[in-house]
Amino acid sequence: SGTCTLREAVIVASILAKNSVPMLHSAAALLKIAEMNYSGANSIFIRTLIEKRY
Q1: 3-state helix, strand, coil in the chain (%, to 5)
Q2: Which family does it belong to (predicted)?
Q3: Number of structural domains found in the chain
Q4: Max Cα-Cα span within the chain
Q5: Is residue 17 part of a domain?
Q6: Domain assignment present for 25
Q7: pLDDT, tens digit, 9 for 90 and up, residues 17-53
Q8: What is the C-alpha separation between 2 and 18, in angstroms, rounded?
Q9: What letter would DSSP give residue 38?
Q10: Is position 1 within any domain?
Q11: What's the pLDDT score for residue 54?
Q12: How confident is residue 3, by pLDDT bands cut at 50, 70 and 90?
C-alpha cells in the first residue's frame, strides 16, 4: 500500500540488519528507496542498509 509506520520500519530494519544481504541487492534497494518521497520509515531503511557490514 506504500505506507509503513515507524514501528513496522524498526522491526523490519532489525531483521534486515541481522541477515545477510548481497551488496548489489542492497544497492538496488537504496536506489529505489532514495527515489521515493521522504518519510521516517524510508530513512530508517536507508540508515540500516548503509550501516551494514558487507
Answers
A1: 70, 0, 30
A2: Belongs to the bystin family.
A3: 1
A4: 30
A5: yes
A6: yes
A7: 999 999 999 999 999 999 999 999 999 999 999 999 8
A8: 24
A9: P
A10: no
A11: 81
A12: confident
Residue located via cell numbers 542492497: 26
Cell of 49: 542498509
29 Cβ neighbours under 8 A, 6+ residues apart = 45, 49
The span from the CA of 23 to the CA of 32, in Å, is 14
- Report which residue type is found at 38: Y
CA-CA distance, 53 to 45, in Å (whole number)? 15
Nearest to 27 by CA among 49, 1, 44: 49
Cβ-based neighbours of 42, under 8 Å, separated by 6 or more: 33, 36
C-alpha grid cell for residue 11? 522491526
Candidates 24, 36, 39, 41; CA nearest to 52 is: 24
Distance CA 50, CA 28 (A): 12
